[in-house]
Amino acid sequence: MKYFINSTENYHRQDLNSLGWELTVCNSLEPVNSPCRKNLASPLSFGEHLYHFLKTIIPFDHLRSVLEIGGGMGYLMRDFLKINPRLRARMIDISPYLLAKQKETLQPFKVDFELADILKVPSESFSDIDLAIMNENLGDLPTLVAAKENEDDSGPNIACFSERLEHFNKKYDLPLGLNENEHVNIGAMEIVEKLCLAGIKYIYLSEHSRCSRADAAFLVPAIFRYSGADFAERT
User: Is the pTM of this model over 0.90?
Assistant: First the structure.
């Protein structure tokens, strides 16, 4: 299968200066008078809803630290820290603009901020994290886009990403790249493996747009199948 890389790295590093055009669920529920909130049984912000939902399956009383990757305007983390101020928070973002916005939003709280590409941060640096969150941003990661036979599949890092796809297929017995016109969110797979290798017990990933078949069928189950200690035993 021939691929080319779709990457938003340069856009997020250099050009992004607003999230106004992107109506995420988190942003749509942010204003207290939001019409979206009025349609909910409980008119809370997205972060508040998410915290209360996760609390039904995650023992927050035993969590000490939370990492958010690509935290947007910082609203979700703000809500988490308002509800549970004991949490030690860390924010990593590739966008200077968004990281600055997060610092403004989270100014009342003690938070560690890091301007970095999560794909280049070593997994060892997450060894003290109990919960990792990536909310509504999986579609921003590098993706292997199926190319037609007459299209040029050259480009930076294409060989590296193709090798990583082969790695995932062999190591986790995945059939990715076998079907024509199937795109693969290789960046999301890299991050799932990185977080699991770090031994993070709880990982929340989401996207507000339509997932590809590869994401839905193979990526999400891998979080549960190979997370934490079980994942480490297989590596």
Answer: no
